[in-house]
Amino acid sequence: MDRPKQPNIILIMTDQLRWDCLGYAGHPDVKTPYLDTLASRGVVFDSAYSACPSCIAARAALHTGREQSHHGRVGYEDNIPWNYHHTMAEELSRAGYYTQCVGKMHVHPLRNYLGFHNVELHDGYLHSARYASVPYRESQFVADDYFYWLKENLGVSADVTDTGIDCNSYLARPWMHEEKYHPTNWVTDRSLDFLRRRDPRRPFFLMASYLRPHPPFDAPDYYFRLYRDMELRPPFTGDWETDEYLRRDGRIFDSKTGPADPELARQAQIGYYACITHLDHQIGRLIMALVEQELYDDTVILFTSDHGEELCDHHMFRKSRPYEGSCHIPLLISAGKNVLPGLKPHSVCRSIAELRDVMPTLLSIAGADIPECVDGMNLLPLAENPEKTGRSWLHGEHSYGEFSNHWIVTGKDKYIWYSQTGEEQYFRLDDDPHELHNLIGSDSCRERIGYLRSLLINSLTGRPEGFTDGTRLISGRPYPPTLPNASGI
């Protein structure tokens, strides 16, 4: 008997895109017409999270399908080898797919393909790969395809730092070269070239892995002009907050806080939104190419991000935090008319999803076996029946110095524990989605908080850091960003 035809699969991965900065998510300012179209033709998972919300740890969950204590990366640390036995691309390759990644991988070494047949790499600005002490072949200027291409086209001195903006900065200004040289355009260009040269006899898996809207906020000027004169919704500030860290660090351009200057905060919003709309239009180019090459109807598209961006909410900036701006991410599945006939278009699933779920979901779409080591959940049954109940809660965390945190999130609320200080917070997300009111001291919530705390204790029991003795949480324990199993060996 002939095997059913396998659909083509495209994973559109973004970097640092928070869940609410999309038109289909109801944002009052950000315009994303192409992503809105994908959402209208598919299923939106509006309670998707990144359980360890920074670049490396989040991508470990994506590529292995494992939760953070199993893949071993619970914070940010460069130069730790990736040697996992089962990866998403490797399993799809075994299932008969030709696998290609274009854009960001953020693995070690830089040219580690993680089972992809081919990678055209651009990891953005990686400090650890640019230092003078880095060996020649491990230098980002050699190993990164976009940097190599940029220098070939614009000269040896060309660099993404020519704007004067750091890769973790809240500063914003338009791209200084022609738009066609922007890294967002480059990912689409190289993805289109892959579609041109693919083997038409084989299904393909393309991971189009965009760098933006991760800083630098440097979209082409056209996109800045869309937002410059707009009255933007201000950042969210709760009644529980202090400006202690903002006063201490708010003049540092790569700070973990937002800027102390409100005008710089507005400029950061403009730059971030400009990067998102630029990204959306480049995704539109990819979609149009699928239509023109008569591939769209036979293709499944999964769209998501590795983590979010606080964008000055709660006086904070960047990621690694337990709050919604940092850890709540977009995730949707859209499909052409010839594939996934059970998919419910224009629907929303409110069950909690996580990046570890991407690998088993794509393997299921491909008709491939899911390795036993995978912790993630196949989302296809939820895509076919969005009202069905899946995961009811999730444990998230991040090693982050004085701000190291653990959290339990459900479909209606969130409990946070800061592991260095012992501080606790509790938010009712169903009534307070932007975490403006900390209810940790509320008598009416005491029983519920105790239940969520017990879930966290159970999640941390047996961990090497010693966060709990099985009955209570223990603060002040050493919390390195990688566990002994982080290399995957």
UniProtKB/TrEMBL annotation:
Question: Which Pfam families does UniProt cross-reference here?
Answer: Sulfatase
Task: Name the enzyme group at the top EC level.
Answer: hydrolase
- InterPro entries per UniProt: Alkaline_phosphatase_core_sf, Sulfatase_CS, Sulfatase_N
Which SUPFAM superfamilies has this protein been placed in?
A: Alkaline phosphatase-like
Q: Where is this region: Disordered?
A: 469-489
| Molecular function GO labels | arylsulfatase activity
The Sulfatase N-terminal domain extends over: 7-367
Record EC number: 3.1.6.1
What are the alphabetically sorted keywords of the record? Answer: Hydrolase, Metal-binding
Q: Say which family it is in.
A: Belongs to the sulfatase family.
What NCBIfam families does the record tag this protein with?
PRK13759.1 (NF010322)
Task: State the name under which the record lists this protein.
Answer: Arylsulfatase
Q: What is the lineage of its organism?
A: Bacteria, Bacillati, Bacillota, Clostridia, Eubacteriales
